[in-house]
Design goal:
260 residues, alpha/beta, 15 strands
Length: 260
């Protein structure tokens, strides 16, 4: 599923970023942040809500219960320092001569770029960008799954992809997702991506989840799994107390990788 681009106005983009980070923001807070009248913010929030980017409430805005992710080229630049730090920290957890899955996503692409110090890896991926990044490593063997290539983000999806993933068993499954709700459910927007990531979960001996702090409390509608399905979380900021409690209960090993 290829998403629509972000709105062209810089203030609208910044409003979306604040809502994504905080979950809910009042109109007064936004007005103070941008130095504009509350009436101006109300109009901005109304426009963004009509376009489906956020949910409008009396006095503020929250993240939309969306079925669409932000477009790939926009996600490439959002929180990029955090994604690069997460990628480096996760790459440090991968021993030489390991086998691993890598799924679709901009954070997993940062992870792939950070694997240059590893040796003799065997990688199965449904992400053409990851395959291209890893193809420069002479001692890596990279396998691209079968399936349909999406023009918008280089993802490979479909029944053939799931069948391909199910023919392998790897030491590590390195995944990105689009959201973690307050019950610890791992979520994504695209049903095809959900099914592919589920295949990685069931065929990995150890699962490493890569996600920056903006994904906590986000509510895509596709259920990938639960925190209990992962072994390691690599993120950029300490999760809030409710999520820390969920991670502790699920016995998930947490690694923090703050941006440099």
């Amino acid at each position: 599923m290829c998403a629509l681009p972000l709105p062209p106005l810089p203030r609208h983009r910044q409003i979306l970023a604040l809502v994504a980070e905080r979950g809910y923001v009042t109109n007064e807070t936004l007005a103070q942040h941008f130095g504009v009248a509350v009436q101006t913010i109300r109009r901005d929030v109304g426009t963004l809500a009509e376009q489906g980017y956020i949910a409008r409430h009396h006095g503020g805005a929250s993240a939309a219960s969306s079925v669409e992710n932000i477009a790939y080229d926009e996600r490439q630049v959002l929180n990029q320092p955090a994604k690069d730090a997460i990628g480096r920290a996760a790459a440090a957890l991968i021993p030489d001569r390991s086998t691993l899955f890598i799924n679709i996503g901009t954070t997993t692409e940062s992870f792939a770029r950070a694997l240059t110090d590893r040796r003799d890896l065997r990688v199965v991926t449904n992400n053409l960008h990851v395959a291209t990044i890893l193809s420069a490593q002479a001692d890596f063997r990279t396998i691209i799954t079968g399936g349909t290539v999406r023009h918008c983000d280089g993802g490979v999806v479909g029944p053939s992809t799931i069948e391909s993933l199910d023919t392998f068993r790897a030491d590590f499954g390195v995944i990105g997702i689009s959201g973690i709700d307050e019950e610890g459910t791992l979520l994504d927007f695209d049903p095809d991506e959900v099914m592919c990531t589920r295949a990685i979960l069931r065929n990995s001996r150890r699962v490493i989840l890569l996600t920056d702090h903006t994904k906590f409390g986000r509510h895509p509608m596709g259920k990938v799994g639960a925190l209990a399905d992962i072994d390691v979380l690599v993120t950029d900021l300490e999760p809030q107390p409710p999520f820390r409690a969920l991670l502790l209960a699920a016995e998930v090993e947490v690694h923090l990788a703050p941006p440099a």
